[in-house]
Design the sequence.
């Protein structure tokens, strides 16, 4: 397992370096002078020059690139141009909120989506299957901010069951969970729809395999055939999709955070864009991509857990 | 693939009710967008402060917004933006991405590896975040939205075109073409392309749905086509600010976006079931 992990880590290194390069290039071609953004129109040329030196943007591009790569690889993402605080601190301050949201919606999606998908596959082409398919397609069609607003209208404004604003106190677990309900439902509904559909088609494929027929023929109880023989093999594509979707979810969390006025990575990135805080943007993009690379890695590791053949190959 | 692409497409629609429903819904929205000047009833930009924030009524079917503009008229005109942005973006992504995938898969070797690595890098950015940054960088306009969304969809099209190309290029008719002295371009576009067209088109309808969603999301964040041009995402953004007094401002455009995306998903889903040999007969 250890060597498998090392091999996978090494394999994602070129992608990570390429991603960092792209981030560097993107931030450099954004129009505008960062020093001017920070100090404003009234700044003297001397002050501007001094700040440029301090930010390291007066150096030739290739040196800036080397600086950027070296510090990024050491985990130093620079300082925000606006607040002056290290990017990594700004991020770690809100990261728990974003992780709460993505992880809880993933759990909700799996807890409902996998059983629903199995059920639809077992009831293939019957009423339950059709209903599940149509409903999940509707679920997939909801843009997150639309479902978020609808949920907000019904459960927070009409019936006042849940709070309108999702900013929570991280230390107070009850408050944290309570304010997570509507945002989780918003992101989780898409997840449920997606996981249901993938589980259904993966189960359909597995259920027609010879070994499932063999298991049934030798008298294995139906429940065991489904859980032990079919589901375990059907889970690989499900995990792939969940992994892929986590990336999308990180993007979608931007919208959820806006609708429910929650702090989080998405809010930070939108603020940075509005303030033209290049240093912040650069650091945030690195973190987003890092999260995606980690997600892919976790997905691969889960394969190893589900299917021993993956580890050996 | 013996019946020809068009023949099979007709079969698909004949056999698959889901794709029919999707197609009809989508066509209906397209008709609404095309006929906007005649069916909108009033000018979507005309303000009337006395009539502001009126609930739905006989004169204003879907109510009015904070400037007293007719929500129904804005909704009808807004369909145009959604459709123009998503259709243009996906067409660009399909043509450029598809060509990259085809050529890369056909050439193979180190070139293919390099191109696919580049596509992987593009895929490492969440679509919405990538769109957000590109639009913020270029400035919000119709043109730039199209560029941003097509960039986010480029890599998936390259991948979907490449995979079957790798298989098709080993087939005998391609070798025969080469033996006959056909140019590479002719082999790729005349002989390989028709064999993978079905898969690319299914993908296109599903990605259209994503494009509509990304456009609406960017407009909702405030990075869409500039106001006062009506866009569905922008209407929800304005409506969200008045959600306590006028919930209809966000509800109707929300339902419109949902219907458009749903129709495209139905269409793509039905087409995929029918064209995917593994799922056929399901």
Sequence:
């Amino acid at each position: 397992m250890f060597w498998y992990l090392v091999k996978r880590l090494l394999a994602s290194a070129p992608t990570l370096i390429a991603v960092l390069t792209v981030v560097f290039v993107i931030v450099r071609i954004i129009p505008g002078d960062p020093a001017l953004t920070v100090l404003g129109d009234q700044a003297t040329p001397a002050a501007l020059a001094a700040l440029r030196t301090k930010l390291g943007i007066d150096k030739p591009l290739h040196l800036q690139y080397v600086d950027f790569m070296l510090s990024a690889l050491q985990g130093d993402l620079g300082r925000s141009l606006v607040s002056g605080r290290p990017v990594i601190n700004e991020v770690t301050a809100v990261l728990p909120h974003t992780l709460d949201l993505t992880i809880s919606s993933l759990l909700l999606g799996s807890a409902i989506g996998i059983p629903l998908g199995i059920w639809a596959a077992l009831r293939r082409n019957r009423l339950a299957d059709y209903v599940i398919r149509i409903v999940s397609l509707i679920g997939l069609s909801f843009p997150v901010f639309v479902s978020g607003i609808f949920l907000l209208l019904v459960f927070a404004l009409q019936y006042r069951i849940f709070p309108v604003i999702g900013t929570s106190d991280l230390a107070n677990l009850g408050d944290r969970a309570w304010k997570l309900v509507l945002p989780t439902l918003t992101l989780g509904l898409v997840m449920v729809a997606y996981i249901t559909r993938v589980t259904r088609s993966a189960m359909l494929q597995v259920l027609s395999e010879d070994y499932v027929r063999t298991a049934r023929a030798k008298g294995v109880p139906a429940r065991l055939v489904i859980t032990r023989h079919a589901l375990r093999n059907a889970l690989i594509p499900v995990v792939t999709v969940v992994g892929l979707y986590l990336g999308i979810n990180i993007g979608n969390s931007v919208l959820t955070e806006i609708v429910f006025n929650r702090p989080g990575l998405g809010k930070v990135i939108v603020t940075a864009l509005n303030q033209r805080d290049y240093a912040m943007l650069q650091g945030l993009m690195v973190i987003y991509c890092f999260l995606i690379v980690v997600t892919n890695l976790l997905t691969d590791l889960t394969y190893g857990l589900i299917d021993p053949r993956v580890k050996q190959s | 693939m013996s019946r020809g692409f068009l023949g099979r497409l007709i079969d698909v629609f004949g056999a698959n009710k889901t794709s029919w429903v999707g197609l009809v819904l989508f066509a209906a929205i397209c008709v609404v967008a095309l006929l906007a000047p005649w069916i909108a009833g009033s000018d979507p930009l005309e303000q009337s402060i006395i009539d502001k924030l009126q609930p739905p009524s006989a004169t204003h079917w879907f109510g009015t917004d904070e400037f007293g503009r007719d929500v129904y008229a804005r909704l009808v005109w807004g369909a145009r933006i959604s459709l123009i942005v998503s259709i243009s973006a996906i067409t660009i992504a399909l043509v450029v991405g598809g060509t990259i995938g085809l050529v890369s898969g056909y050439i193979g070797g180190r070139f293919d590896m390099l191109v696919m690595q580049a596509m992987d890098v593009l895929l490492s950015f969440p679509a919405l975040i990538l769109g957000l940054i590109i639009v913020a960088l270029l400035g919000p306009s119709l043109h730039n939205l199209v560029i941003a969304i097509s960039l986010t969809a480029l890599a998936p099209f390259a991948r979907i075109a490449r995979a079957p190309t790798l298989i098709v290029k080993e087939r005998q008719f391609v070798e025969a073409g080469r033996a006959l002295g056909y140019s590479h371009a002719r082999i790729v576009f005349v002989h390989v392309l028709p064999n993978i067209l079905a898969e690319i088109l299914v993908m296109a309808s599903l990605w259209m749905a994503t494009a509509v969603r990304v456009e609406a999301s960017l407009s909702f964040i405030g990075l869409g086509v500039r106001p006062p041009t009506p866009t569905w995402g922008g209407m929800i953004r304005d409506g969200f600010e008045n959600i306590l007094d006028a919930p209809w401002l966000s509800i109707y455009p929300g339902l419109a976006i949902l219907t458009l995306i749903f129709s495209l998903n139905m269409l793509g889903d039905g087409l995929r079931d029918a064209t995917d040999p593994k799922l056929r007969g399901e």
